[in-house]
Predict the 3D structure of the following.
Amino acid sequence: MPRTDLTAPNGAKFHVGQTAAEIVALTQAARETDPGILVELGTWRAGATYVLRCACPSVPLVSFDVACPLLTPEQYLAIEPHTLLLEADVFADPLRVVQLWRGRPWPALLYCDDGDKPREVQTFAPWLRPGDVIGCHDWGKEIGPADVQSVLPPTEWEPFCTGSTEGTTCRFWRRLP
């Protein structure tokens, strides 16, 4: 997996599982969503968490993983404030994830980058509301059209930020009104 190293202003180093172009795509999607909440499935080493934090510094961000990383104090400071890392199996209690955006008036951005991306999209896409955005990493490698066609039909979802995702393994969709 290509890795990009990012350094925060406080000197904290983050290893990101995305390429530079994928970081740009994730940043663009987060900003264009204009979210009220960011939800990430798959914290890994908190690299994408840091990218999302930089894209939307004042938006609440919740990142789930079955094993949260041990971060340095500098890394924690770089992703603070408004960031919560939760160690949890999101499939054991999917409503724990869904309740983060239910009842909120603004769009959510859900980024699926954990161990079972097809299941993540299939489980959580039906719970997203008009204007919400779902995205995934490793398109064409770990997830593809056959995995999402039943839960992201073009009558209900539109591709999102397609200009920035060309040539990358990131994909995003926005739920139509």
About this structure: The chain has one domain: 4-175. The helical segments are 20-33, 47-55, 73-79, 94-98, 117-124, 145-148, 162-165. Residues 4-175 form a domain with the Rossmann fold fold (CATH 3.40.50.150). DSSP finds seven helices and nine strands in the chain.
